[in-house]
Each structure stands twice: as C-alpha cells, then as structure tokens.
Design brief:
Layout: E1 11-12, E2 16-19, H1 26-33, H2 50-65, E3 70-76, E4 82-92, E5 97-104, H3 113-127, E6 133-139, H4 143-151, E7 155-163, E8 170-179
Parallel strand pairs: 5-6
Antiparallel strand pairs: 1-2, 2-3, 3-4, 4-5, 6-8, 7-8
Helix pairs in contact: 1-2
Length: about 180
C-alpha cells in the first residue's frame, strides 16, 4: 500500500479537475460549507465565517502534506469554481482500507458530476494507493448518496449507530463498501 500525496495527485474527468484546495478557493469553499444542506446528514456544522473556511483549508492541506488523508477540490471546467470536495481519510495501512467522503453544492447536484469524481477517486485509490477496500458511511435517510455509491459499485456491508459528539444526536449509518476489483 502506498500513501504518498506529495506531489499532490491532480486528477481529471470529462468535466472536472480534481486538485488541492488553496486559500484562493476560500470564497467557493465558504459558499459550499456554509450551506446547511451539506451538513444535513452529518454531525458537522456549517461554517459561520470566512475564517472557519480558511482554517478548514489549512487543516486539510496540513493533513495532506503529512499523508494523513487526501482531499480534492472539485473544480468545474466550465466555470473554474470549486463546486465540491471528495476525500480519502481514516486510512488503515495494515488493513489496506480507507474511508471515502464527499459533498457538492446543491446547484451542481444531479448532473452526474459527483459520479465522475467518485469513479476517478475510486480508480486512484486502487491503482495508485493500492488499497484493497474503500468504505463510505452514509446516513440511512440520505437516499441520493446511497444511490450514487451503488451506481459506483459500492454495496451495503453493514449498519451502525453513530452518535454526534456535538449534540448527542444518533445517526443510523449505512456502511457501503467497494473492494479492489482484482482482489475479489
């Protein structure tokens, strides 16, 4: 298994450039992260001010530089705007597995862009990182996310209850898994 994100691995799909976020992206990322719909099924909170977003970008960048995780900003080729993010995190080298996370601003949802990004990142995780398994934890009422993952070859593996450290809310999580195609 290979965990080395330096230099940063830019990826590309038909309509997207997947790249490292910079502070120049702060307004696009803030507009995404302040949207309550992005946090509806998670225990995360919307960014309240631009400084929250700058701190987020810096934290993500530091984690990438330290090979703790990788997060791509999804740049729309037509507009040049960051419209979402996708990440591989909670990496367990001994188990050759990691967790997938993603989000996109509402105006760009439903057009297949996240499907493009997700397929490219899954390919990267198996081809370049040599992961054996990717997992995605999705709240059971987030049917669009579950459907997206299933279209990208993920299958339900198990269900777990997750409790928010912020407000104690319980989330009924569906864990979807995709295994390296050559190691089935």
């Amino acid at each position: 298994m290979k965990i080395d994100f330096n230099p940063f691995p830019n990826l590309e799909t038909e309509r997207l450039i997947l790249r490292k976020l910079t502070e120049d992206d702060m307004y696009d990322v803030f507009n995404m992260r302040k949207d309550p719909s992005l946090h509806e099924y998670t225990d995360t909170k919307p960014d309240e001010q631009l400084d929250d977003t700058i701190d987020y970008i810096r934290k993500m960048s530091q984690g990438i530089d330290e090979n703790k995780w990788i997060l791509w900003g999804l740049e729309d080729k037509d507009t040049g705007r960051i419209i979402g993010t996708i990440s591989i995190w909670n990496i367990y080298p001994a188990d050759e597995k990691a967790e997938l996370g993603f989000g996109m601003i509402p105006d760009f949802r439903g057009g297949g862009l996240m499907t493009e990004a997700l397929r490219e990142v899954v390919d990267y995780s198996f081809r370049d990182m040599d992961l054996n398994r990717l997992e995605a934890f999705t709240e059971e009422s987030n049917l669009k996310s579950i459907s997206l993952l299933e279209r990208c070859g993920f299958i339900e593996n198990r269900r777990v209850i997750d409790q928010s450290p912020f407000d104690g809310r319980e989330y009924k999580m569906v864990v979807l898994t995709r295994t390296h195609p050559e190691r089935l």
